[in-house]
């Protein structure tokens, strides 16, 4: 068992209260004890970041590159170890955990390169003899609030650009997964980064997160989590004139047309809906299938879902791990009950499983005969639950896909270039996949959605500069 302390101004501290980190695959396994801080620790972290921000602001591109490259190199070298810790505390399968750790390393490597690729503009003024420069500058202290479902990748894709563009950082990671945040902070702390530039504070979002959001020394907040919490953060940031970036979930559609390759469609839908136990904001829980392929697809996908092996995240052969904790499991099972009460037909799964280890296991649930207005098709469940909606044709399928309060990711399975092109153009989502799962995106391109899914500028890739910098226009008369 390991302690998972805070990192404040280059010093590790456990604070006055600790919280056990429980393995959802085996609740008798305590991964470690995490610091649980109050507003005093958060205040000290913000002061440290504020004091360190000025020096890091004027660091050279080479200094920033060296730090981020060293972080990425160590993460990649230790990806199996980090992935095992991640899977043990979060519950995604070991291959998924290792893959996520590798992605975090790649993100830091990408933004190391961005340190050397930062650009500006030199323009002639409309007035004679005057030159104009446009450049990007850091904001100062960035507050990051990250979720439990991607406990190393999401912190990485927020921390890396924040540091690359010259900002100081305070990270408030999810309390359910302190080990991954601690491991990442430990690597960052040993990278050569000046003390105080990066700080980690563990604690309740309602306490330390709220203090960070409202603190006058914090220039911007980047948050990934629930819609309800995100809306509250947006309001608070508006009142305090802070820059804000929100990623808040989805109810993502996957359209399967009559001309789709059945094997490809089933694979994409099973991956999208049930891998990572369905605990992905990009998961496709609404499968919209046209009439001509509907019955064949339902038979094939129900067989595939029923065959998924649920088990301990670290066991070889496990395809679906546990739900993160008891509260989430109860919520998922409640949605199964709601779906049946609404008239949907449960063709497989939807039951709590008692396995060798005492964990939060649930058999993947698939509904058919559903309507888009059902709660199971309107509300984000965030678990291994998906439903099939029948559509008459492509036009109705597109309308159903767009009929949602969310707009993060959308997919279509078809062999028609016409329908694929039309769907890419008309889908009201920030990310569109053709013959691919809706979950799973590259680290060098923008991530984000529309409607209730996202607010503010995009994350990842070169577009991250839009959030983590501000633009300065300077006029010069030589």
From TrEMBL:
Gene3D superfamilies: Aldehyde Dehydrogenase, Chain A, domain 1, Aldehyde Dehydrogenase, Chain A, domain 2. Residues 12-473 form the Aldehyde dehydrogenase domain. This is Aldehyde dehydrogenase (NAD+). CDD domains: ALDH_KGSADH-YcbD (cd07097). The keyword Lipid metabolism does not apply. The active site is at 247. SUPFAM superfamilies: ALDH-like. Belongs to the aldehyde dehydrogenase family. GO terms for molecular function: oxidoreductase activity, acting on the aldehyde or oxo group of donors, NAD or NADP as acceptor. The keyword Signal does not apply. It comes from the Bacteria. Keywords: Oxidoreductase.
């Amino acid at each position: 068992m390991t302690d998972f302390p805070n990192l404040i101004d280059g010093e590790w501290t456990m604070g006055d209260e600790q919280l056990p980190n429980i393995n959802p695959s085996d609740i008798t396994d305590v991964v470690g004890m995490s610091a649980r801080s109050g507003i005093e620790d958060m205040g000290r972290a913000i002061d440290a970041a504020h004091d360190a921000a000025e020096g890091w602001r004027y660091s050279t591109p080479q200094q920033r590159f060296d730090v981020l490259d060293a972080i990425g190199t160590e993460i990649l070298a230790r990806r199996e170890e980090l992935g095992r810790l991640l899977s043990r505390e979060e519950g995604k399968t070991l291959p998924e955990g290792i893959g996520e750790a590798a992605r975090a390393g790649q993100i830091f490597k990408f933004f190391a390169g961005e340190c050397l690729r930062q650009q500006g503009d030199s323009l002639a003024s409309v007035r004679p003899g005057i030159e104009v420069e446009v450049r990007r500058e850091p904001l100062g202290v960035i507050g990051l609030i990250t979720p439990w479902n991607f406990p190393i990748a999401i912190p990485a894709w927020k921390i890396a650009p924040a540091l690359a563009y010259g900002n100081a950082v305070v990270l408030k990671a999810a309390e359910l997964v302190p080990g991954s945040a601690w491991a990442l902070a430990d690597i960052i702390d040993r990278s050569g980064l000046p003390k105080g530039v990066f700080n980690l504070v563990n604690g309740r979002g309602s306490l330390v997160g709220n203090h960070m959001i409202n603190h006058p020394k914090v220039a911007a907040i980047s948050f990934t989590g629930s819609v309800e919490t995100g809306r509250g953060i947006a309001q608070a940031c508006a009142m305090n004139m802070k820059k804000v970036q929100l990623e808040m979930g989805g109810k993502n559609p996957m359209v399967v047309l009559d001309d789709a390759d059945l094997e490809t469609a089933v694979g994409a839908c099973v991956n999208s809906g049930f891998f990572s136990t369905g605990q992905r904001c990009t998961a496709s829980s609404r499968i919209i299938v046209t009439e001509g392929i509907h019955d064949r697809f339902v038979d094939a996908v129900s067989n595939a879902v029923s065959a998924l092996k649920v088990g301990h995240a670290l066991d070889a052969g496990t395809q679906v791990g546990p739900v993160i904790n008891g509260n989430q499991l109860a919520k998922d099972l409640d949605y199964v009950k709601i779906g049946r009460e609404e008239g949907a037909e449960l063709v497989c799964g939807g039951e709590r499983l008692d396995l060798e280890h005492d964990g939060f296991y649930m058999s993947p649930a698939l509904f058919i005969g559903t309507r888009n207005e059902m709660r199971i098709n309107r509300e984000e469940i965030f678990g291994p639950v998906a439903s099939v909606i029948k559509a008459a044709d492509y036009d109705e399928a597109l309308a159903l896909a767009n009929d949602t309060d969310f707009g993060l990711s959308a997919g279509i399975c078809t062999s028609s270039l016409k329908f694929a092109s039309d769907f890419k153009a008309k889908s009201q989502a920030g990310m569109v996949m053709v013959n691919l799962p809706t979950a799973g995106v590259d680290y060098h391109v923008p991530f984000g959605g529309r409607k209730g899914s996202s607010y503010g500028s995009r994350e990842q890739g070169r577009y991250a500069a839009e959030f983590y910098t501000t633009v300065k226009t300077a006029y010069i008369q030589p």
